[in-house]
Amino acid sequence: MRRALVLVLGGLMSACGQAKAPGPDMGVILAEAPAAKLSAYGLFDDMATAAPAARVEPYDLVNPLFSDHAAKDRFVFVPAGEVADYHDTEVFGFPVGTVLVKTFRFAPDMRVPEEEAYRVETRLLIHKADGWAAYPYVWNAEQTEAEYAPVGARRSIETISPAGEALSIAYAVPNQNQCKTCHQSGRDIQPIGLKARHMNHHGQLDALSAKGVIGPLPVRLPSEPAAFDVSLPVEARARAWLDINCAHCHKADGSASNSGLMLSALETDPVKVGIGKRPVAAGRGAGHLLQIVVPGDPESSILAFRLASVEPGVAMPELGRSVPDPDGLSLVREWIAEMEAR
Amino acid sequence: MKLTRIALAAPLLLAIAACGQSVEQPAGPGIPKLPPPVSTEGDFGSNLQAALIAAKNGDTIVLPEGTFALTDPLSLDVGGVTVRGAGQDKTILDFTNQAGAGEGLLVTSDDVTLMDFAVRNTKGDGIKSKGADRITYRYLTVEWTGEPKETNGAYGVYPVESRDVLVENVTVRGASDAGIYVGQSSNIVVRNSIVEFNVAGIEIENSTGADVYGNIARNNTGGILVFDLPDLPIGAGNSTRIFNNQILANNTRNFAPEGNIVASVPSGTGVIIMANRNVHIFGNTFDNNRSAQVLISAYSLPFTDASYNPLPREIVVRGNTYGAGGNDPQGMLAPLAQAIGGALPPIVWDGVTSWPGAEPQDVNLVIGEAPEVGFLNFGVGAYPLDAAALRPSPERPVALAPPAEPAAIVLPQLR
Fold this sequence. Notes:
The complex is a heterodimer of chains A (342) and B (415). Helices cover 21% and strands 20% of the residues of chain A. Chain A has 342 residues and is an alpha+beta fold. Chain A folds into two domains: 20-223, no CATH class; 229-342, no CATH class. In chain A, the strands form four sheets. Chain A has a six-stranded antiparallel sheet with strand order 3-4-5-6-7-8, covered by helices on one side. In chain A, strands 1-2 form a two-stranded antiparallel sheet. Chain B is mainly beta. Chain B has a domain at 125-414. In chain B, 8% of the residues lie in helices and 35% in strands. Chain B has a 19-stranded parallel sheet that branches. Chain B has an eleven-stranded parallel sheet with strand order 3-6-8-10-13-16-19-22-25-28-31. At the A-B interface, α1 and α3 of A face α1, α2 and β10 of B.
């Protein structure tokens, strides 16, 4: 009895950021409640530089989600002695105790994103004993610590886009429930990007497998085209872009399931992808247009209309962007334009 | 043992306090009291969202009296929570300056009760609940102020993909789609509510088992709609009863943005049944709906969904009271009415019994009204509409297999 209480006390004290061993702290990671400060997890050796601790492995995606031009640093931590099971089409089977870390940063000029870069937020997805949990953390002005921010935050960001356009962004750090809006999978929360096809480039999967993060790989790995590699076919690139930017909600067990619009690259039914499909529950999001995708006619396609909009209630995706993704939008337009009219 | 526990509890409390967390007072004896309302110190929207995130099963979140301007949408993802205001005209969540996308309040957990507050001028839908079983909407107002306009949000009260849905004593005004919209759900009660100046007052879509009664649907474009649409994850809508409603003067112009299915609703329709099965309309009062009191219609657009049946079938219309109406048909009904002299009787059926690639079907319509209640079958036969092939007839169809009325809906939250 007394011993149990001492353990609880110890847990509480370490949650306060008091003495602990370097490296990821499994007690904090698996605690029922999120830590008040990001540093408490021990995911970073040095908060000021955000240098990752041992076993906190960086990774990236073939096609990242667009988030108001933010640059992102992604890390995956799998507890010592554990490994994620490989899967061909779904998210890898990560063990309990896994932490996915995503830091969003900006710079005054996103053409040179490393110069004078500053971190705005770090989102954690933690595989707890009863499933994944999502926690947002917002960095302080000194860039030395990030605080748990369950209700999210808004930040005014002045920057220059990669294309050289001056931008004033009303950047929204999502609240904890909004994390789930995108990460929903039925009743559960699931990671999005950590699928074989999204990570298969530059030998990354082999490297992560060699480091013991992911288990043995098959000989043949699925892949997707880089969305903006113009040497590749437009349709496959547009579908890959829609996959990573839209399909986390637009899937059978996602937040947008009731629309019937399914935007995974693996979807084969043209109507489900929006071709000739009528809007459902779109309201003014339909913009007086009759179909999601009108082959050969991007101007008449609701899909392009909503990707171009910045108006709440019209703009898609609903969360995570306040300015349009110019490259994604022109890719989708190009795909629709070259589609044979029916 | 008790003493030891207290002694040990003290350092625990200190440790918690050291982390800056709040300490709850132990519950006293007697009747449990409501907790204090959400603080209005600082940013009320953030305080409320924080309370919604921190809530535990069984909690009641109390909203204070007043009008509160919110810029970001709210969401609740904890089961068994009640959100309760001071009254639907006393606690007003005003989203006129909403910057974040989507709805005013989104509920994604089970066994939630929302009561006694109002949501105003959201950019998207008013209150949405998705995958939220056993939800109760009670004594709520959702409205868009000013003249009805197409930039208003689509749905006022919007439960979708849920089981056991209760909507009662709510008021919805100004929705550019449906005031109360229940979609892809089952076991539904919508009762004792007022819907006005919406495009559709109440809409039950792609849903199974709904009782819609005791409502006042007035001054909408269309009063009460029961639809089934193709290409959705949940379809084959059936078994709805619409009874003891007052369906009055639904003559507001159609202000739905084009592209949405309700944009085709003719202004001045009381009830529309489209592509749905086993719908019973009885004991309602219809008055002053200028196009038609009851319109029974097939889905008229092309579709590819092989499991979809675009016909209304097993429909019973009986024992309703009809006042004036049908005197000034609008929208797609205007040219059709013109062909037969300009006015329409209370009950109108498009007469569609087949669709491209399908055999004609016996649709089993029962028009169980007194002989003097007028009926018109446009005799369209099949879509697309061929004006030359119209065979209008006042003769009531004979149902070969009249459908039995579904049993009353029983909801666990009302037991």
